[in-house]
Design brief:
- The complex is a heterodimer.
- Chain A is of the alpha/beta class.
- In chain A, 39% of the residues lie in helices and 19% in strands.
- In chain A, helix 9 crosses helix 10 and helix 18 packs antiparallel against helix 20.
- Chain B is of the alpha+beta class.
- In chain B, 38% of the residues lie in helices and 25% in strands.
- Chain B is built from 13 helices and 17 strands.
- In chain B, the strands form 3 sheets. In chain B, strands 1, 2, 3, 4, 5, 6, 7 and 8 form an 8-stranded mixed β-sheet that branches. Chain B has a 7-stranded mixed β-sheet with strand order 10-9-17-16-11-12-13, with helices on both faces.
- Chain B starts with 12 loop residues before the first strand and ends with a helix.
- Classes of the chains: A alpha/beta, B alpha+beta.
- At the A-B interface, strand 10, helix 6, helix 8, strand 12 and helix 9 of A face helix 4, strand 13, helix 7, strand 15 and helix 11 of B.
- Chain A: Homodimer. Interacts with PKM.
- Chain A: Pfam families: ARMT1-like_dom, Fumble.
- Chain A: One of its GO terms (cellular component) is nucleus.
């Protein structure tokens, strides 16, 4: 990190202005950049505040108006509407719900309250939920400034409510900290069942809670030796006042000059018990003398070890007693401090011999505020919705950590933000995932893979000009589009720069997260669907060829047709794909063909990709073949736009148009054997652990026994290694030479991956067929 | 009348435990020496016996705990008194020098020693005093010593005791306890650091865990915080201080009890938590700081012990180790903590010979090699 920091200082011309400002000098005279900090305040309702010893966390619910692209079929009954357009694209305003969380130093609290008062339009709100140790101290101030009644909530229950919320709604929320690994942060795939777990909150003291369900938790213990002990005792020993400074001291110290180690007593290790010589036998054991001076750094380090080890030991004893293996740590002692995360991790490893891992949370600092907010919003029932982290509006992990890349600090002072969008639909797992708890959507983790990270960050940066141009071109009637597009460029480039230095900022960095971040940023600046017109044109062209393609397929022999259908899907996926000779890079076509000779599948679920040729001339002929075989088909497409992927809205229209030409599709729709569902996502990639609940229901009801995933985003960047409990087919052409190279092939290599879950022989059917 | 066993080890009989802070020495003084024996006894041996038994202090730092002396003890067929002597580990060179001066090595005795120092200083014993150590595991010795002393203490003051009414300071009194059927037993040895053992029988025990927050931490922190230099000084200060000025209590945060979670207002929420504030740092006394350090370390040991007892499903806890020497404050705190937080399920027991069990175990090993 340090090396990167230095380089950025040298090369960035704006760094002089970005230098770290001592928080003491940034007092109440600070002017807040409103467009960055308290966004959407005018529609805000429902506030909650969590005031800790040094940081305040404010939460509010607001609505965001933003543009969405809608498609609507022309009424074909009236002649005049039948223009040359396939369907009508309109940009509409939609209001969606968003949760805003802002974290800032207590020093700003008055300025912030003034700002809120000045910008708050909606005054329906009467109360503000408050939690945290400082809530009572600022009660009068808040009530006076905002005219809201402060309603205090219990800290522990807020923390737990908040913890449940982030674990459920934010993928990659939890991580393991490994100081010396390639990537310090190892994000965990969250088990869909988050319970039970142990939450160890290290504030001034330590509280240990066992959480068994959404509504059931118990404080099972605690300890008085916590962050306050480190701070208080540390201040006495070193005459250093601030917590951060104490940690700084500790990071430079040598505890072995203060602690009595096993080797100080034994001369070496205590072999009989397997205690190594470097183990601390007695904390501060060497300072039991009046005639020796000890350095502040060494004492601070010894104190840090003493407290971390003690907390770790107690946490392990409680975990063992209650038979829990998931232990999350939080509280100001942990918050964003690599040093304490390291010492706690070390302690847990030592005391459990690696059986329990210390887990930390990306949004740990917000738990209290989130929980307090949720308590106040129970009538809105926020837990019945799924929420998604908005990458455009969230600062990311360590955005305000003093040792980190300073760009973000400069942008928003010491303000850290989290924004979460309410999703239209509830998201759940695909019921066909083999092991939901270990499913990882992404094929390459760029957080851990430095060369891959370099490459993709470069790629996305390189492609930015094109995206900006496309965005401007998509709104020819709006003269200010160029200005907005420029803002988008700034924002996304800044995100890419942040990720270069903090690849862990939003959980594991992946091609998917880079694509999603770009979509979020485009939406932020009201470019809801830059490809809408292109998609329409391509769909229109492809439709004209549909019947011709179907006819030529009909003329083929059964076996030739099966191959032509596969080629159609692959070719639709990329125009420039020629006749690639088999065997392909991954080639299980023969097994697939054998399988097709057997009885039809009950129901196939198809995750579709691009508009135009891909969906109309590639996927639809395959759909009609499946229907003809007697297989029901569920077509899952994106709920919202992403690149040139076909959306559910578009697909509805396209399918109707095809049905008008094709009796097989028509009867499929009529008999409900062909169903269109939305996947709940607006991403060019696919996360099978976050799919529309309705989709999951259809999949279950229809006893889906085949899943087809097509396209690079869904079958290569994601899900390449996903294992399903039914047969699956992953098809894509690798349109990126770097990736092709990584997978051992060349540009435009073909992946045809047909998989049958272990224990379900695919050939049994073939044997039975005459 | 004495029954001389010819397989018995020649005098002198010592057991030694060299810890991180203190060296503990037990010495068996035979009182049944026959005239014949006396004549045969070499001068060196006599001189050692006389030196040890006629003094209660040795050099500037060595001390004989006279009140712990076990008289008329029969050991290996011999009758005599068992003496308990301690001195700081950093004065071991002085001890070795004395051994050299008194030609201890000419007695060709085996010196049984345990504790980490038996390993660390083995070479020094050889080079400085020409003595060969027989090194023994400290936990083996500890368990053996505890069980032995408890078994021989039938008359006189009871070895084992507890505090009656631990939660009521006005009626909290020390009472003898008959440790008849001691197993299973959680044995907590608080020296410089802490070891916690689960003992199921004389030969079956395991080390459950340990903590580095022990007696050494109390003294080390007290020295840094108050400028004191000895355990006695630190304890003296602690007895005059008030920890509630240093610690943040539950009531300091919640104004009273934290009822939702059953936490009483008097419970410490954050040890040294008040010291986060500059004003409060300036208003506390050294005595307050010493008291808070004592309370913090003691309660933490209590807390870890209680969790171990629950995990091991053991209801009786015996606390030993020199941290408890003349430290009634800590013993009462432990008794209170065990009783209160376990709702009366756990009983804290203490032994009079606190820190000497390792040394006793070493002596027994000399006489009855296991």
């Amino acid at each position: 990190m340090c090396a990167h920091y230095a380089r950025s200082v040298e090369t960035s011309p704006t760094m002089a202005e970005c230098g770290r400002v001592d928080s003491h000098t940034m007092d109440k005279s600070i002017t807040l950049p409103p467009d960055e900090i308290f966004r959407n305040l005018e529609n805000a309702k429902r506030f909650a505040i969590d005031i800790g010893g040094s940081l305040t966390k404010l939460a509010y619910y607001s609505t965001v108006k933003h543009k969405v692209a809608k498609v609507r079929s022309f009424d074909h009954s009236t002649k005049e509407a039948a223009s040359d357009k396939l369907y009508e694209i309109s940009v509409q305003e939609e209001v969606t719900a968003r949760l805003h969380f802002i974290k800032f130093e207590n020093a700003y609290i008055e300025t912030c309250l003034d700002f809120i008062k000045d910008h708050l339009v909606n005054t329906e709100t009467k109360v503000i939920k408050a939690t945290g140790g400082g809530a009572h101290k600022f009660k009068v101030l808040i009530e006076r400034k905002l005219g809201l009644k402060v309603d205090k909530e219990d800290e522990m229950s807020c923390l737990i409510k908040g913890c449940n919320f982030v674990l459920k709604n934010i993928p990659h929320e939890a991580f393991v900290y490994a100081k010396h690994a390639d990537s310090e942060f190892r994000f965990q795939t969250t088990d869909p069942d988050i319970f039970p777990y142990l939450l160890v909150n290290i504030g001034s003291g330590v509280s240990i809670a066992k959480v068994e369900s959404e509504d059931k938790f118990e404080r099972i213990g605690g300890s008085s030796i916590g962050g306050g002990t480190f701070w208080g005792l540390g201040a006495l020993l070193t005459k250093t006042k601030r917590f951060d400074e104490l940690l700084q001291l500790a990071s430079k110290g040598q505890h072995s000059s203060v602690d009595m180690l096993v080797k100080d007593i034994y001369g070496g290790s205590y072999g009989y018990l397997g205690l190594t010589g470097d183990l601390i036998a007695s904390s501060f054991g060497k300072s039991a003398t009046a005639d020796k001076e000890f350095s502040k750094e060494d004492m601070a380090k010894s104190l840090l070890h003493m407290i971390s080890n003690d907390i770790g030991q107690l946490a392990c004893l409680y975990a063992r007693l209650h038979n829990l293996s998931r232990v999350y740590f939080g509280g100001f002692f942990i918050r964003g401090h690599p040093l304490t995360m390291h010492t706690i991790t070390y302690s847990i490893n030592f005391f459990t011999k690696g059986e329990v891992q210390a887990l930390f949370l990306r949004h740990e600092g917000y738990l209290g505020a989130i929980g307090a907010f949720l308590k106040g919003a129970e009538e809105d029932n926020p837990n019945q919705y799924s929420w998604g982290e908005n990458y455009a509006g969230s600062s990311g992990l360590m955005s305000v950590s003093p040792d980190m890349y300073p760009m973000q600090r400069a942008r928003s002072g010491t303000f850290d933000m989290l924004e979460m969008d309410r999703l239209d639909r509830q998201l759940v797992n695909l019921p066909l995932l083999q092991e939901p708890s270990s499913y990882i959507p992404d094929t390459v983790d760029l957080t851990e893979d430095a060369p891959a990270r370099e490459y993709w960050l470069f790629c996305f940066e390189d492609a930015l000009d094109g995206v900006v141009k496309r965005a401007v071109a998509s709104q020819p009637d709006m003269p200010e589009a160029a200005v907005r597009a420029e803002k988008f460029r700034q924002k996304y480039r800044h995100k890419l720069q942040t990720l270069r230095y903090q690849p862990f900022a939003y959980g594991s960095l992946t091609v998917r997260s880079l694509l999603d971040t770009r979509e979020h940023c485009l939406n932020e600046f009201n470019f809801p669907d830059p490809y809408s017109k292109i998609k329409e044109r391509e769909n229109d062209v492809a439709l004209k060829y549909y019947q011709k393609v179907v006819k030529s397929l009909e003329e083929l022999s059964w076996e030739d047709r099966q191959f032509a259908l596969v080629r159609g899907v692959l070719a639709g996926n990329v125009f420039d794909w020629g006749a690639k000779a088999r065997p392909w890079l991954v080639d299980s076509y023969d097994q697939w063909l054998e399988r097709l000779k057997g009885p039809p599948h009950k129901c196939a679920l198809l995750f579709v990709d691009n508009s135009g040729v891909d969906i109309i001339l590639g996927v639809m002929p395959l759909v009609r073949e499946l229907l003809s075989r007697g297989t029901e088909v569920v077509l899952a497409s994106n709920s919202g736009p992403a690149l040139n992927d076909v959306t559910n809205g578009e697909l509805q229209i396209l399918t109707e148009r095809i049905a008008a030409m094709d009796p097989v599709i028509q009867s499929g729709l009529r008999d409900d054997r062909l169903t269109l569902v939305q996947n709940g996502s607006s991403s060019p990639c696919l996360d099978l652990s976050r799919l529309d609940k309705a989709l999951a229901m259809v999949v279950r009801e229809r006893k889906t026994d085949l899943v087809i995933i097509e396209g690079m985003g869904r079958a290569i960047h994601t899900n390449y290694f996903a294992t399903l409990s039914c047969e699956s087919l992953k098809l894509a052409v690798i349109k990126n030479s770097w990736l092709a190279d990584r997978l051992g092939g060349k540009l435009f290599s073909v992946v045809f991956k047909y998989e049958v879950p272990a224990g379900k022989p695919s050939q049994e059917a073939a044997v039975l067929t005459p | 009348t004495s029954v001389q066993c010819d397989w018995c080890v020649a005098f002198p009989w010592f057991g030694m435990d060299i810890g991180g802070t203190l060296v503990k020495l037990v010495y068996f003084e035979p009182k049944d020496i026959t005239a014949e024996e006396e004549q045969e006894e070499v001068e060196n041996l006599k001189s050692i016996r006389r030196y040890l038994t006629s003094n209660i202090a040795y050099g500037t730092t060595g001390i004989r705990d006279v009140h712990l002396e076990l008289q008329d003890l029969t050991l290996c067929g011999r009758k005599g008194n068992l003496h308990f002597i301690r001195f700081p580990t950093h004065d071991l060179p002085v001890f070795l020098q004395m051994g050299r001066n008194k030609h201890f090595s000419s007695l060709h005795t085996t010196l049984c020693a345990t504790g980490g120092g038996a390993y660390k200083f083995e070479n020094d014993f050889r080079t400085m005093a020409d003595l060969q150590l027989h090194k023994l595991d400290e936990l083996d010795c500890l368990v053996r010593g505890v069980l032995y002393i408890d078994s021989v203490m039938s008359s006189g003051p009871s070895e084992c005791y507890y505090f009656e009414n631990p939660t009521d300071p006005d009626h909290c009194v020390q009472k003898p306890y008959l440790l008849e059927n001691p197993y299973p037993l959680l044995l907590v040895n608080i020296g410089s650091g802490v070891s916690i053992l689960a003992v199921y029988s004389e030969n079956n025990y395991k080390r459950v865990t340990g903590t580095s927050l022990g007696g050494g931490t109390f003294l080390g922190l007290c020295c840094l915080l108050t400028g004191c230099s000895t355990f006695e000084e630190a304890l003296e200060m602690a007895s005059e201080g008030e920890s509630t000025r240093v610690d943040k209590l539950v009531r300091d945060i919640y104004g009273g009890d934290y009822e939702r979670f059953g936490l009483p207002g008097w419970a410490v929420a954050s040890s040294f938590g008040n010291m986060m504030s500059k004003e409060k740092r300036e208003s506390v006394s050294k005595e307050d700081l010493a008291r808070a350090t004592l309370v913090t370390i003691t309660n933490n040991i209590g807390s870890i012990t209680r969790m171990c007892a629950l995990n091991e499903n053991i209801e009786r806890v015996v606390f030993v180790g020199n941290f408890l020497r003349v430290n009634t404050l800590s013993m009462k705190l432990l008794a209170y903590a065990m009783d209160y937080w376990s709702k009366g399920q756990l009983k804290a027991l203490f032994l009079r010979h606190e820190g000497y069990f390792g040394a006793v175990g070493a002596l027994l090993e000399l006489l009855h090699p296991s």
